[in-house]
Amino acid sequence: MSVEPLGAGNNSRVFRVALDGSRDCRRHVVVKFYRRDAGDARDRLTTEFESLRFLWQNNVRSIPCPIAIAHDRRCAIYEYVDGEVAGSIPPNAVDIDASVEFLRLLKQLRGAPGSEALPAASEACFSVDAIVCNVAARVERLRRAPDGDHAPRMRRWLDEVLAPFEAEAVAWARETSAAGGIAFDAPLAADARTLSPSDFGLHNAVRRPDGRLAFVDFEYFGWDDPAKTVVDFLLHPGMQLPDALKRRFAAEAQALFADIPLLPARTRIVYPLFGLKWAVILLNDFLPERFARASGERRAVQLTKAQALVDRVAREYADNFFLS
Questions:
Q1: Spatial separation of the C-alpha atoms in residues 271 and 323, rounded to whole Å
Q2: Are residues 175 and 297 located together in one domain of the fold?
Q3: DSSP string spanning 249-265?
Q4: Does 229 reside within a domain?
Q5: Can you give the pTM of this predicted structure?
């Protein structure tokens, strides 16, 4: 038996294990160990394993098969999906279509047996106001970052750049919601929600040798707002999509969820708010519980990425041609 580490995830340790003498098709498996930070109540281990089991039992095969779980060791074993990270090479229209097809499969399972027991996706926000509150809470946590290693520069950026744009985006969202007849603080109806990996995109997909995509990383899976699913794909810092593919995904995804009332309007409204959230997530290495595990160089890089994302969203949100 041989063991090889895979990736460099912040939330888990992942290994590919070669099974000597295996007589079945599983010559390799993935063993994943899950970390839990102090104060984080999310059970990523159970969420991912049970979500994949639910999907596999419902004949979804564009995912790794869940094999075994060990709660006492905080680890699980999954099928190893051979291939390369889809986001490591330039994406194409086929990748976009495959991504939307996967969302279609998830949508079809809204009423499948066992779906009612699935949790809400991690940090799911079912009203516009809930997103605003989530961003504000994340910013407040960042303000408690330890001093040193770019923390003062990060705080200045929060005060001088992010806070003014946050106020602008929230005011715009309130006005646009009112004009569109969307209640700012009313939760999305249960029948308008969809199942989602939450952290969905080509950065979490493997391109098999035959070209088909397999989607991985279901630690945050659950019921979510389709508008979030759409804008996350467009905004995720782990993907660099050309404008033509962004428009293709937005058009196909919104057509998929055409039965959801006011989805195009809500998608435009939440776009800048989730842009703010992703910018703040990029700064997680400044958080007190993570500060010691990251280098000052990495924090500087992440701050530059957050600045670029906020600049981009500020340019795009009011006249968003991806979501027009």
A1: 9
A2: yes
A3: HHHHHHHHTTTSTTHHH
A4: yes
A5: 0.92
